[in-house]
Design brief:
With about 325 residues, this protein is α/β, with parallel strands linked by helices. Helix content is about 30%, strand content about 20%. The chain is built from 10 helices and 17 strands. The protein has an 8-stranded parallel β-sheet. It has a 4-stranded antiparallel β-sheet with strand order 9-17-14-15. A hairpin with a 5-residue loop joins strand 11 and strand 12. Helix 6 packs parallel to helix 7. The radius of gyration is 24 Å and the shape is elongated. The relative contact order is 0.10.
Length: about 325
Amino acid sequence: MLVMVKANAYGHGDVECSKLLEEFGVDYLGVALPGEGMKLKKHGINLPIIILTPGIDNFQEIFEYNLEPSITDPEALISLEGAINKLKIARCKIHIKMDSGMNRFGFTFKETDLIAEFINRNSNVEVVSFFSHLAAADDQRHDAFTMEQITLFSLMCDDIQKKIPYKPFRHILNSSGTERFSSAQMDMVRIGVGMYGTSYVDETKLRPVASLQAPLIHINRVSCGTVGYGRHGKVNESGSVIGVIPLGYADGVDRHLGRGAASFMLNGKRVPTIGNICMDSTLLDITGVSAKVGDQVTLFGDEPAATEIAKILRTITYEIFTSVHPRVARVVGP
């Protein structure tokens, strides 16, 4: 199992999650950029780490930190070979990405000979895996295309395999692919957002691994008028109780969640936003809820789920998670 911890573990905290995943027995970690991998190594993570977007001029740093770059096109292959020779690398591990239909990056079938020639020419380079990426594994309307991708990837790997002296392992399944196409698990599965509790296949089978919470820092009883910037928060004629939490749009609370568009959980009850989201704070109408300063408000977690917030914002949970600013503390619970 390879688990993606790129983009700060999809916003959840890359170091914190990587330490737990290492403890739980995951085989590989995946990140997008060399700096992400170097950060994990500096924090003592010993698991092998694949760099999915290494670029073509970062190989010295990558090899210094014992990271494993993915090579996605002929230009990167040429650059890699030059770096290996220049740095006199005795042994290194890499991964080769195939384009099976995503049409983003990766080697095409016409370029498989280049890969085989490179492998045979560089005995000091171990290709650990061939891999590809499914474009629409979550959507059954595209199942025929997904099967075409799986078949094409297998054919590409088979073509290279006939020309080289060893067998790299293979992986193509992302989270949705792992749920829906178990016959194509091959040698490894590559889990991303599914590890963090989101499924685009069956949401009932997964639970969120984290929640975004903040304490009430102020309670204000307002008898009339408005609250917040622009006076968009209208107070009930009978008065309102306003709670303030120290999270705002600078922390990843999207401004479109303001003015009652979303409601969060406080002491077992939903409380709507009121007025505009501020940079560093959010106002909540907590009228009728028994609460005191210090009580925790859940913005997403078990309830409301991140999928609910994503639907309000007409986006995906990836964006909800990764929008949480690094200044928000990531705390590993009991």
